[in-house]
# Entry
Amino acid sequence: MLHDASICSQCDKCLDVCPINANPKVTQYSVDDVLALVRKNKPFLNGITVSGGEATTQLKFIIALFTAIKADKTLHDLTCFIDSNGHLPEAAWKSVLPVTDGVMLDIKAFDRALHVKLTGRSNERVLASARQLFEAGKLHELRYLLIPERTDGQQELKQLFEFVRELDVDLKLRLNAFQHHGVKGGALKWPTMKKADVERIAQDLKARGLKNVVTPSVYI
Amino acid sequence: MTELLGRFKGITEDPGLSFAQKARYLSLEAENALPYPALDADTAKALSERVICDMYEGHAPFKPRYVMPDYSVVLEKGSAFLELDPATTLDEALNSLMIAYHHVPSVTNMPVFIGRLDDLLLRYCSDVSDEDLYKKLKLFWRYLDRVLPDAFMHANVGPSDNRVARTIMRIDAELKQIAPNLTFLWDPQVSSDEIFSQACQSIIECSKPHIANNPLHQPLFDEYGYGVASCYNVLPLCGGASTLTRINLREVARRSKDTTDFFENVLPKYIDLNFRLTEARIDHLFNKSGFFESFLVKEGWIQRDRFTAMYGVFAMAQCVNELQEKEGRSGQYGHDETANKLGHRISKVLFEAVDARPMENVWRGKAMLHSQAGLSDDDGCTPGVRIPYGSEPDPVTHVQALAEHHAYYPSGVSEILTLDETIENNPAALEQLVKGAFSLGFREFSANISNNDLVRITGYMVRLSDIEKFNECGGSRTNTTVLGAEAADKGKILERAPRVMSHELSPRYS
# Structure
């Protein structure tokens, strides 16, 4: 399938058509291409964040891009952040952290079996990444996705609380609420997370001592 | 009964209008029963074909379109005509302003500019507690919306960070009223980061204030400075604008064979005709109406030689697309580099033409080009140089496409950026967007947040819930319908016209 950006109406039907979930909108960019884009938009930026998919699967590119930004006189004031699921090994983090200002890290679940069920992988690396990034002073925020009846149980929330407390009660914890926007397949049958429940959980975490719990201001 | 009397009767018996709205339409009908100021045949033809337009200001201009008084005169010296002593306390100052507003005409007979309020009021606030200041200004704000219900009435605050500016923006975000409209004048050398952040936070809450780029505006004016009135018209203080006439650029493009014909023949022709229309109207105002004998001039609230002529254009988007088609190019305005560049070139040509033409009875002898946003786009014409509604690119691309126009429109060019409600999660992004836009040359910045009840239509504020109410009654979604003039059509609107309306948008009874 071919994608023509000039007539694309962003209906995303092309994503549904492909049996292996390939995305015809994917574009190849060189580091220079991205730098040109960043330069053009520089007046509107105070930093850039690489995201995905999982951005760290393109680790060499990230290192090259961040290094180029830090070395460029007109761009070096931009911060460079990574949005990640934390599945990167320790040595790989070490290679990118010197040019990275911060990482936003997703933790999908604390219970190992639940994590495997949700993501197909175990969570040891994710938890180790969080600790490593925190020690390096590069853990900008931890994110936790609340899914009703799956990740909002007492046991999960207790482990979430203890994990954050062990790192730092001032660490920014962003609670995200599962919604159907952009969701496909079986998960569409899962109920969405309601604002009242998110706020209740946030209040509870704060009451137990976490100081920097952030909740969504919009539910879509 | 003559047709005219029939119209009078229709107005008096229209159940959709309040008595004040009836009185206004009756006066407009009476004025328009008079002969138009003498126009030559070519100008009259262009006007009747609406290639040029007088904004339906009326046949006998007896007041300037926008009056921008120096209200410090009445506060500091009082007024012999109004039998007011100089104000010595905040209560007296607010009371004097409330009286003064009723004596300041504009095209709508309501004030379109109520002052740079922090400049005016700060000196009376030194012994007023924060709590009292909040209470007094809140009552003042309520008074403005209820007694002067015009969405074009406009207050200014800033650029300095001060108690009055902060309190007004706080109250404005709390009350979410349609009137008054509000502009914050921003100057990175003067405004603090805190007050700039407060302004951006307020935009997220109620789509107000509009933000003006003071470093770009201030140098164009003198020691009296400027004010922002109505739909983002930047005008000399202690004066204003006599008229606003405008060229429908789409109509000019339609009458052109191609781009060359447009630039060499057709556009220059209509630029000239619009000047003649402006001159005829200004001549009537200055030499026949007697307006400048008013106490406002004698007491120094305004000066006769400080009234500019606003030279407006609109439908740039349709004009460019029309010319693109004539040249066999498909790129659309706002989205295509060639189309955008053509638009910038048209703005430049207009600016140079306006700058080259000396005018009598006009501030500094020259008109000021204006990207006109004040009438609705029923006819498929987009306001000013804006990108058509619904086809706007993302906010950054939007700003980049239009920034180059801004240098050419000294009396104002307003864009409305529609931002997703998720901006609530990230107010810093809005701040960065404003700063980015200003660094690229934007003179002013307005944003609607997509889930706010209070939003801009062409530049004035409306409440979406009001529109919803009218929709439930079977009315159409068009703003003018909702906003008054066409609201008189009983088939569409069963209820009364809204209490607060946009009087500039309904310059005639129809």
